[in-house]
């Protein structure tokens, strides 16, 4: 079957991946998704081709090569990974096997199939407990959990693939992602502040604040919350930059960018935004801080702005309101 050139997105049936797929399809790109559906939802993809297999499996390189060939793939966005910090602490071997193994298979398939453009999903978790704010890409990378370690080792692998295989790459270090670009693409995982607070609100429970004595303006933890649509747009900007470079030839390189707003927001600020979105104002419960929780993690996102012209454009309130609307849509829509 003759196809236009496609972008292959691993993990494209996931919360973030589905936003990238929809943006690419809306602008006319052809996309093929590889996803094992261990946490992804095919309903998010509409008529986008989906190939389902485990990227860490022994036959993954062959199946990736076949998919690359069938869909005339020239660039890959690799999102597929396990990403629960607590689970990674309990099951480090599974995280290294799956997160590093799947990426290694993607890199090997690229080398064998002649794919030279890769966008790699990394995380602010590679910084561990950064000193001061905002964090630049040159800050020390000292992850404090196996999840963050696998993301950092993945960056090393992608970097090594440049001279070895001519693989040009952009690595994106996500900060705290939330919100929804469409009501049907909300984050169903109740694992991070916004979705946990929404879940508790709809159940009539007060949200919980993990520590209010940090050295921050209001004592609660500060993070850089970036709207998932802004994050998805950063992937399109990265792809376009690689496509331009790819056509020019020349030595491959591996560039790393923070993807954040550059503005911090405290837990209390996020909860105040949610109270406005939901119309429900709870006095939060204050619990002790989580072990190892950094007081503040905020991006310096000036490098991606300078190189790719990408900047976040959506506000904290837009992010929280969109997350709330998506949750309401999901509760109205039968599974
Ligand atoms: C945010 C803030 C908590 C829940 C994680 C992982 C990693 C990365 C980003 C992908 C902190 C506070 C939270 C609650 C609270 N994602 N909090 N009450 O820990 O910054 O980072 O997400 O790479 O998965 O590093 O995110 O949402 O858990 O916490 O007070 O019920 O909210 O202490 O200050 P975190 P988070």
Automatic annotation (TrEMBL):
Catalysed transformations (reactions): UDP-alpha-D-glucose = UDP-alpha-D-galactose
Top enzyme class: isomerase
Coiled coil residues, start to end: none
SUPFAM superfamilies: NAD(P)-binding Rossmann-fold domains
Cofactor: NAD(+)
Enzyme Commission numbers on file: 5.1.3.2
UniProt entry keywords in alphabetical sequence: Carbohydrate metabolism, Isomerase, NAD
NAD-dependent epimerase/dehydratase domain residues: 7-260
A matching Pfam family: Epimerase
Pathway involvement of the protein, from the record: Carbohydrate metabolism; galactose metabolism
Family indicated by similarity: Belongs to the NAD(P)-dependent epimerase/dehydratase family.
Record's protein name: UDP-glucose 4-epimerase
Gene of this entry: galE_2
